[in-house]
Amino acid sequence: MNILKLLDRLSDDKFFTTETSRLESLTNMSSMGQKAAVAAVPLGLATLMSTSAKAETTKTSGTYFKTALTDALTLALTLEYLEDEYYSKGLGTAGLIPSSDKPVFMQISKHESAHVAFLKSTLTSLGTTPIAKPNFDFTVGGAFAPFADYNQFLILAQAFEDTGVRAYKGQAGNVMSNKAVLQAALQIHSVEARHASQVRRMRGNKGWIELADGGNMPAATNAVYAGEGNTMQAGYNTATAFGAAAGSAAYDEILSGTDATAIASLFIV
Q1: 30/25 Cα distance (integer angstroms)
Q2: Is 7's pLDDT higher than 70?
């Protein structure tokens, strides 16, 4: 089933059924309310959408944890597919990436390809058929021109990497049932964070995020940074000692599976 249809069945908030353009959706997503039940679901496997919440509670704990695990891995694979193809296309576009920056993106591209291979292999080993790579439109219907403008290429690269970092962190609880997968996911998360920091600095930004400010990013990417301004951690106000900017930057926030998938889906056709 198409990933957009999966999300449409997962939520009834009309997010994917309005006349609003995908670019406008990305801009406005952070202000749209998500129902509590929807926000708690990482990606929305067919199992969760074809049965009632009451029926779900009757599943054995083993089945529940496997569902959460494969759900999280499928989300990760979707994001890695997106990044892998993005860098592949960028590197294959003559004259786009300056020779001084090419080694960086060649290395990042290799990492993303390795992540795709790992996630597909892991899903297969768990008895789940990996989803096929979606068809991507990195122009978002003509709103961007990342393969004609290097600055725009960097902007989307930063948005994708920052999304990936937050999304992996948000799925940690769903892969804890498998220690080997948890360890690998944490290792990938660290690499994605290094990618994000590198790309951010290539754009003249700080390597970290302060107060939900992506740093020289267009408003259309606001959803990627929504919630990053939080300074309350387990009841402690991190802004007390060093101020709100340092307090928020000291703790990188998670991105829910629903929001991470919604962001990625804006580039899926």
Answers
A1: 9
A2: no
